[in-house]
Hints:
The chain has 90 residues and is mainly alpha-helical. It is built from four helices and two strands; from the N terminus they run H-E-H-H-E-H. A two-stranded antiparallel ribbon has the order 1-2. The protein starts with a helix and ends with a helix.
Amino acid sequence: MLTEARLYALIRSLAQTTPAWATAIRYHTKPDERFDLTLVARRVYGLPDEWPVIMAAAGLQSVDEPLNEQLLVLPTLEQLQRLKRNAGVI
């Protein structure tokens, strides 16, 4: 559980501190994604199982929280793999 919390913190930090000019994925959430984070994960990464990344980037504390329409700053797949290694998830 501790590694997942660390990964959440790393992704949240990236989402909040990445400058506009830096490499990252910028994604505008849509109304149909409000209660289904897997839709965002599928659209961004092609992998619905990456929904915790969306949750962390949006700052949601629970999967039951609605995802408001917003611009998310998300790690690229390469950045995500590095974050997972740093958190000890992989």
